[in-house]
């Protein structure tokens, strides 16, 4: 099957006897192609199935509304009440908290330059002799 990576917000976590379902909502913004055609925005909802050994980990570290990144294997069917139905499901392999992207590359570069300038302006040197003493 095909590998898939999803970046979205957790809508609901449903715990099952032998695993858990994580419903993730993903927003894709619209854009305009070079030929002038407008592509509308999309709102996708994914059903991610995790096996039993993920259940404790997900219950401790994840909750509704969190931004997560899920990597898994896409299935060409959905499972509902132990029966295959039309739709798609993702067999989850990993789930991680995702970080919000910075506002832009220019802001990121400015932060790096400010940090480097601050470190260069400091004339302090570490006191290694003091650090190696017994009472430190």
The coarse silhouette is: flat
The poorly predicted ranges are none
Q: Quickly name the level 1 CATH class.
A: Mainly Beta
| Order of strands in the sheet with most strands | 1-2-5-9-6
Q: What's the pLDDT, averaged over the residues?
A: 84
Count of domain modules: 1
Short descriptors:
136 residues, alpha+beta, OB fold (Dihydrolipoamide Acetyltransferase, E2P), five-stranded mixed β-barrel, 3 helices, 46% strand, flat
Describe how the helices and strands are arranged:
Elements: E1 2-16, E2 19-28, E3 31-32, E4 38-39, E5 42-51, H1 55-61, E6 67-75, E7 78-80, E8 83-85, E9 89-97, H2 105-121, H3 128-131
Parallel strand pairs: 5-9
Antiparallel strand pairs: 1-2, 1-6, 2-5, 3-4, 6-9, 7-8
Provide an overview of this structure:
The protein is α+β, with helices and mostly antiparallel strands and 136 residues long. Strand 1 and strand 2 form a beta hairpin. The chain is 21% helix and 46% strand. The chain is flat, with a radius of gyration of 23 Å. It has one domain: Nucleic acid-binding proteins (OB fold (Dihydrolipoamide Acetyltransferase, E2P)). It has helices spanning 55-61, 105-121, 128-131; strands spanning 2-16, 19-28, 31-32, 38-39, 42-51, 67-75, 78-80, 83-85, 89-97.
Quick overview:
It is built from three helices and nine strands. The protein is of the alpha+beta class.
